[in-house]
Amino acid sequence: MTRTRNSRTPKKRPxxxxxxxxxxALKLSLVGLVVLAGFAVYLDAVVQEKFSGKRWTxxxxxxxxxxxxxxxxxxxxxxxxxxLDALGYRREAxxxxxxxxSVNGNTVDLNTRGFQFYEGMEPAQFVRVRFSGDYVAGLSxxxxxxxxxxxxxxxxxxxxxxxxxEDRILIKIDQVPPYxxxxxxxxxxxxxxxxxGVSPKSIARALWVNTSAGAMRQGGSTLTQQLVKNFFLSxxxxxxxxxxxxMMAMLLELHYDKREILEAYxxxxxxxxxxxxxxxxxGLASQFFFSQPLQELKLxxxxxxxxxxxxPSYYNPRRYPERALTRRNLVLDLLAEQxxxxxxxxxxxxxxxxxxxxxxxxxxxxxxxxxDLVKRQLRQDYRDEDLTEEGLRIFTSFxxxxxxxxxxxxxxxxxxxxxxxxxxxxxxxxxxTNPETGEVQALIGSRQAGFAGFNRAIxxxxxxxxxxxxxxxxxxxxxxxxxxxxxxxxxxxFSVKGADGQVWRPQNYDRRxxxxxxxxxxxxxxxxxxxxxxxxxxxxxxxxxxIGRLGVxxxxxxxxxxxxxxxxxxxxxxxxxxxxxxNGGFNTPMRGIRSVLTAEGEPLKRYPFQxxxxxxxxxxxxxxxxxQRVMREGTGRSVYNVLPRSxxxxxxxxTSNDSRDSWFSGFSQDLLAVVWxxxxxxxxxxxxxxxxxxxxxxxxxxxxxxxxxxxxxxxxVVQAWIDPYSGQGSDGSCPGAVQMPYIRGSEPPAGxxxxxxxxxxxxVMDWVKGWMN
Length: 773
Known about the structure:
This protein is 37% helix and 17% strand. By secondary structure, it is α+β, with helices and mostly antiparallel strands. It folds into 4 domains: 66-153, Penicillin-binding protein 1b domain (Penicillin-binding protein 1b fold); 162-350, Penicillin binding protein transpeptidase fold (Orthogonal Bundle), CATH 1.10.3810; 410-704, DD-peptidase/beta-lactamase superfamily (Beta-lactamase), CATH 3.40.710.10; 717-772, no CATH class. The protein has a 5-stranded mixed beta sheet with strand order 11-1-15-25-26. It has a 5-stranded mixed beta sheet with strand order 3-4-5-8-9, covered by helices on one side. Strands 17-16-30-29-28 form a 5-stranded antiparallel beta sheet, with helices on both faces.
């Protein structure tokens, strides 16, 4: 039987070359899968290592002193409201909820926020504060019961930032206000809870919207992808970066739940720029734009912050308020459209203003001079990485109200003196301290208070002029057997020949000698001739030792010119020296830090108050008396053209040669302030100590309204009646007799009584007439 041949064409078998290509393709695919798997394992390790460990380096945060309230405290209602405004308290009809305050005449109701202090947690509570004049007259709680002390949370005044200049305030997801999570998901990733890191649906929707619009209107990245890009990757626009982003997003979702991813996003997202400092996270953004904690934000504020995520610079509400308002309202419409809020709520929120503060309240340039001081003191105990990475909380003595008054006094005085030739080239510095504790309360390092450059308060070492004179007189008055306030001294020309053959001839500022005067008059009127003569008698080396005991170690040569202030000091050193005089001879090292806590609120280090008695209180008391006479009858007397004469003050003017430096240092019972004016190039200024620095000091004291100086009379000091013309002992009944303090045993013998008691007003008038004649 013959077979019939099949008419179909037989299948073509693969050639050897085709089989080879298929083999290579299969092998390459397997290799690719292995490489991809290996790369995925690598990315997985990167994701877990960084995300499970310490996610962020947190800068140290620096806080001002907390405002403590108690009945009898000297605090005006206006200053209190200024502090509340700085802390971001909301003014409402009724103080409902933390961070709210209401004002009714002299009564202020507020709900404090609570705060973790070194000593423990201060709870949030309702407080009613009643004012009478410039004092706190009443303090009560929610049930009307009296409160002994209430401590407000401190103002955060800056931070110590790492090299990348990133800053954030970490928040927990259970601390966020209502609508924040819902708004974020609605605007940035509505499928967040259903996708696994990458959303094909979102990509398709974005592709459709962008194609229809003919422009880039919507992105397809999920919140997880955005977090991966910001947290792990760069902003590079490339396919490889996008593929890495997608893979890492899926790996992140594989290991961590949605709440943890959302919490990381809330803390990582970039929301703005403060100069060189990058503002990350909603916690810091809330403070930066609204001066409020995140928990207190309302719907319209949340909508603005979430809307800014799309373009923090483009929608910056301070630079482009109209653009930001449009974006915020678009977000509110979207929330209503998706049913997150009702239409009525959205419309009500759209009627609200943006409500951002004029400047970032946490700007590290707000108080650069004081922050510089804090950093220098911290670096004595901590490494730089501790300060820039561990989130330490630094509590200081900084008083924002006094700082504001100091800055205002400086700027207003310069405006008033602007007409003087050369005034525009004059720089300035100012130090304000508490005389009893040595705590620095305000610091100005430049005429432009917010300038973060050369800190003149700490680093400008300039000749101090007559500010040295209290040290000269203190050296003398420590020898009561030889010197008293009423010792006769000669204010006459003289010369001294030095070892190098140079002849030193001091002169008074007015170029005139004043003959025989009382010792205290040389200090009060800042006479150079009598001061130099006393200084040479007690010895220049001894005066320099006195300066060291006052708290300032100086490396000055023992030249006679040092007695009239040729030696240099910084304003901070001058404040240290005068601090000891103001504190009755007790030296208290200057400090700006009170305590340090860890990021978790655990106490780390305290900077306790230190004190050492370095002088006999009697000699200091006499010097203070002489410095009070500077203000009453000497070079500082113009202060009482502005301040009430009932306000007892002590101080000293200082002017260096050719008026190159204008100084004033003085104190009340509760405030000490040092002011310096001068040029950085050491050129001449149009100011003396009295016409320049004293004017700033007076303006500040008027605003600060300090307590009058009231140093207790030491046990070794007695008051004696003397005749103001002869300096001999007198009696209180004698015409013109005045009382002067003496260290016991150095007072003149009492004089005989002069008959019946004289009218005290007539006695004072006779004494004044005597001086005028």
